[in-house]
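From the pipeline queue, job 12 of 40. The input is one protein chain; the requested action is below.

Action: predict structure.
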Amino acid sequence: MFTGIVEEIGHIRRIIKRNRAERLTVSCSRVLEGTKIGDSIAVNGACLTVVSMTDDSFDADVTPETMRRTAFSLFRPGSPVNLERALRLCDRLGGHIMMGHVDGIGHILSMEKEDNALNISISLDRKWMRYIIEKGSVAVDGISLTVAKRENGAFGIALIPHTGEETALLEKHPGDPVNIECDYLGKYVEQLMNRGPAEDLSMELLETLGHGGQYGI
């Protein structure tokens, strides 16, 4: 799991295409500290496994499924990427819990300065918009951000200067794609409610659980 607090901006060094899959070489330094082969690193919000590494880079394989779900197809040598190592249980949770499993691709509609904030509007497929709630959390290219507003088919975030400086989001422009991971809690609740009759799940049971009820919670 990850928190969406980007540790470092790395750069794509090499891309080896393998039909619909790829192997990426990413130049970096900080995220290599304490990292070993088999560990996970989020690259623009997508959890990738380190398959080999040097003193200043790591290699990761990208599956066809990841290629379909993300904007990785636009990577070129030199492309900046947001990097974060997997969460340790002793770490502070500065952002929100993320799986590193990108749901889909959004597109930047506009970027407008307002005092110390950069207001960014992002369009998103209706399939994923239902998980976006005002003042809830969303991951954009692996960055934990708060939803400032929600509109039909789009949502807005307010980027503070520090986040802009510490991530590659300021490299983006209107029209550019970004990787989106919605808050996973909403997806679990939705699935449980949809399977309610088969699983004996009901609003009455949820209310009972919420108040402790017979389970003594």
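Job complete. The chain is about 20% helix and 40% strand.
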